[in-house]
Amino acid sequence: MARVKQTARKYPSGKTLPRTKAEVVAIAKAEVKRHNDRIDDIFKSLPRISVPAGQIPPPPKHATKTKAVLKSSLAKKKEMMHQHIPTLETIAKRKKGYKILLKDPTTDVVTILCNCAKNLLKGNAKLNKSQMNKLAHDKENIRALAQPGQSLVNKKKIIRKGGFLPLLAAGALGALAPTLLGGLFGGR
User: Fold this and answer.
1) Residue 142, CA distances (Å) to 65, 102, 103, 122, 161 in order
2) Contact at 8 Å (CB) between 125 and 172?
3) Residues 145, 114: contact at Cβ < 8 Å?
4) Distance CA 29, CA 39 (A)
5) pLDDT-derived band of residue 187, with 50, 70 and 90 as boundaries?
6) pLDDT, the chain, mean
7) Sequence ranges of the domains in the chain
8) CA-to-CA distance for 104 and 110, rounded, in angstroms?
9) Alpha-carbon distances, residue 26 vs 38, 51, 158 (angstroms)
10) Helix axes of 107-122 and 139-146: crossing angle, nearest 10 degrees
11) Helix or strand run (H / E) with residue 50
């Protein structure tokens, strides 16, 4: 192979090559400062987004969710349902105090019952035919609970009226049974 002739590196005209380590460090620090100033200028030119304290800004519309984000949100939902299993059991079994829970429902209770209604409409609830027939009379209320556009006040009114909620909670507990048993016995 032919040898390639090495040429001297060109340095910007008017500047001399650094001779000591201190000069090289000073030049590097100056370059870093210049780049940081450029980045600051870019950030200053971006529009400001004001978000109230304690809230997270909404993601951009073009952002897509990754598998990891979807898995973590599913895990959060499962954990939330597991935290409220005693509440669902109280409602499903009509234990002492379930009427008090339904007379003045908290936001958590409303959220859990809305999730139960969504799962029932998706077909995830484990109910037999006679239970489904009983729930058929209250299908408008169940659909209203499952709608994300309904106000919290309307959902609370439905919950206060609803005689169908024990069946709804029982269906949710039936759907959660495999995950509960899997968690007890080391499965998924």
Assistant:
1) 29, 15, 17, 12, 12
2) yes
3) yes
4) 15
5) very low
6) 75
7) 78-184
8) 10
9) 18, 40, 71
10) 110
11) none
Q: In which residue are the tokens 């400001």 written?
A: 48
Specify whether the backbone of 162 is left (phi greater than 0), alpha (psi in -120 to 50) or beta.
beta
Measure the CA dihedral 107/111/117/119, to 10°. Answer: -170
From the number of C-beta atoms within 10 Å of its C-beta (0-12, 13-18, 19+), residue 88 rates as: buried
Phi-psi region of 145 (alpha: psi -120 to 50; beta: other; left: phi over 0): alpha
Looking at residues 93-108, what average pLDDT do you find?
80
Q: Whole-model pTM above 0.90? A: no
Alpha helix (H) ranges present in 47-164? 67-83, 85-92, 98-103, 107-122, 129-136, 139-146, 152-161
Task: Say if residues 141 and 135 touch (Cβ distance below 8 Å).
Answer: no
Rounded to whole angstroms, what are the CA distances from 46 to 27, 34, 35, 41, 127? 29, 19, 17, 9, 54
Q: Is 111 exposed, middle or buried (0-12, 13-18, 19+ CB in 10 A)?
A: middle
